[in-house]
Amino acid sequence: SIFMRLAPGDSMTWIYHIPANHMGGTFFYHPHLHHATAAQVGGGAAGMIIVEDPKGSVPKYVEQMEEKILILTAMDFQLQADIERQGLGEYFWQTNSRTNVILANGVHQPKVTLQQGKWYRFRMLFSAIEMLLQMTNRGSAMCSTKLLAKDGIWLEVSPRDLTGTGKFTKPIPIQLGPANRADIAIACTCPSPGLGCYSEFYSLQNCTDETLALEASE
């Protein structure tokens, strides 16, 4: 119910029965109390629901991939404070901070260890109020990145290669709007295993030259 309220410190358990014929996929949940949705979701009150793919409904190689969950939460303090003031709110977001950051699983720039040459399925969710996110990966590791599904729905032709292979082939960015999800397959190799290497997802909005180069190549 959109009218149900829980006071700070209270808790409640919701049980949802998913129909047996419901398609598998990566989905999104968040509170929807009228006049407080933006304040709550913008503060991180959101999460991911995974409906398991029925056995045999996806390729065997995807079934065998180890999964990694990546919930990206945009925390724009100034936007949240402005929304709260416009709504005459006096409880949430009473701040003058201009902090604007994206957290991954509630952490700033966390690290995930991957095994070289092994394919992983990353389930990504972008929780935001109005931000659009374009990101790709870079680093000393050599990674192959492929898009499997968007918003819980498998692509008609899947997987779609997102990897740039050289000077004349730019990587295709992962594009996510508020509440968008993407299922990504990724495998990396390290040219110098003894020295270690890395790959990172990063926002193209913070890399103007690269964003313009990608737009110019389209």
What does this structure look like?
Helices cover 13% and strands 32% of the residues. Strand 7 and strand 8 form a beta hairpin. The termini are far apart. Strands 3, 4, 5, 7, 8, 9 and 11 form a seven-stranded mixed sheet that branches. The chain has a three-stranded antiparallel sheet with strand order 10-6-12, with no helix packed on it. It has helices at residues 37-41, 60-63, 77-86, 208-217; strands spanning 25-29, 47-51, 66-76, 100-104, 120-127, 133-138, 142-150, 153-154, 160-161, 174-176, 181-189, 200-203. It is of the alpha+beta class and 218 residues long. Mean pLDDT is 84; it is low at 208-212.
In short, what is this structure?
With 218 residues, the protein is of the alpha+beta class. The protein has helices spanning 37-41, 60-63, 77-86, 208-217; strands spanning 25-29, 47-51, 66-76, 100-104, 120-127, 133-138, 142-150, 153-154, 160-161, 174-176, 181-189, 200-203. The chain has 4 helices and 12 strands, in the order βαβαβαβββββββββα.
Helical content class: 10-25%
Low-confidence stretches: 208-212
- Note the total helix count: 4
The average pLDDT score comes to 84
Strand elements, count: 12
Q: What percentage of amino acids are in beta strands?
A: 25-35%
**Rg computed from alpha carbons, rounded to a whole number of angstroms:** 19 Å
N to C succession of SSEs: EHEHEHEEEEEEEEEH
Structural class: alpha+beta
State the end-to-end CA separation.
Answer: 45 Å
Shape: globular
Q: Biggest sheet, open or closed, and with what strands and sense?
A: 7 strands, mixed
